[in-house]
Amino acid sequence: MYDWLIVGAGFAGSVLAERLANERGDRVLLVDRRPHIGGNAYDRYDDAGILIHQYGPHIFHTNSKAIFDYLSGFTAWRFYEHRVLGRVDGKLVPIPINLDTVNTLYGLSLTPEEFEGWLAARAEPVGEIRTSEDVVVSKVGRELYEKFFRGYTRKQWGVDPSELDKSVTARVPTRTNRDDRYFTDEFQFMPAQGYTRMFETMLRSPNIHVMLQTDYRDVKDVVPHRRTIYTGPIDEYFGFRFGKLPYRSLRFRHETLDQERYQPVGTVNYPMSEDYTRISEYKHLTGQVHPKTSITFEYPSAEGDPYYPIPRPENAELFKKYERLALATPDVWFVGRLATYRYYNMDQVVGQALATFRRISDALPAGADTRDVKAIGAAARA
């Protein structure tokens, strides 16, 4: 008899497995359909011996010391600040847009103060900001919107920015200084030996049993367990009762090149050309020294594994129907991106998992009689 059946061995499932096993002494069965732990953060050494990210670049960054300290219990770190360039009008320029982006693109020599005025003169007034297009044109105007945002967004999401919620492009800042870091968080590091090694350390407990290449539906009625933590797609859990929640997927093409370096930064975006959105080179991220280099091309797709919930009002309404079912389901906790139909960074998923663990522990003391936990489960999810 397991205390917990946890579905999904990514950040949400693995953090909860670790906490429940090591802090409470609970017995955990952790299952995943894939042949590896780590979810989309899984990394591996390719045939050339270069450490790559199987599902595209995962850059850890957070402003939470508590989250950073927690993960530091399972890995040493390599300091790394991610930088991204965009191929625009045949030039490589910094993304997010900053002072150097515009000066390089237009052959100008604006100061930060002049750049603010330059942007303000091009910004278009928008009465009510509702869409991703509204966000961008109200800040930087139509021309930069067309060069940097529209094409990339249409490739990434399969729809025009005017059809997407404002949250998509609101995540990308515009800077009036020369700061070319993609993120500005206080803690910006990469696991020194990779994400997979970090997950292996996290799950190294005699109270945790991991089953890979295992579908939850094949074991849920066979393996005795008291409670469930589910991190998969919430619509799938309920048999797509109200229809499928829309997601965007990705296809990856990994290549190894017989040269030491391919591009000047970890990621180069292609907002105006190509059918892929970006190329990433992992040696920038990992610091690995190797005579060859490995890169990954990313192709957005409507088909495949779910990666990004599509933020549109009708999708949010559909999710709410599933959320109401989830809240009424005893003994099951829904955690993570797919189970809550939200786009989270890695640190946010860790934070959500740690918060869920605290609620579980508050509502369900270790060693309590758990034969009837319907009321306890509802309280923990509230």
From TrEMBL:
Which cofactors are reported in the record for this sequence? FAD
- Give the GO molecular function terms: flavin adenine dinucleotide binding; UDP-galactopyranose mutase activity
Per UniProt, residues of the UDP-galactopyranose mutase C-terminal domain are 147-343
Q: Name one GO cellular component term.
A: cytosol
Print the keywords alphabetically.
FAD, Flavoprotein, Isomerase
Instruction: Determine the domain of life of the protein's source.
Output: Bacteria
Q: Note the NCBIfam families from the entry.
A: UDP-GALP_mutase
Protein's UniProt name: UDP-galactopyranose mutase
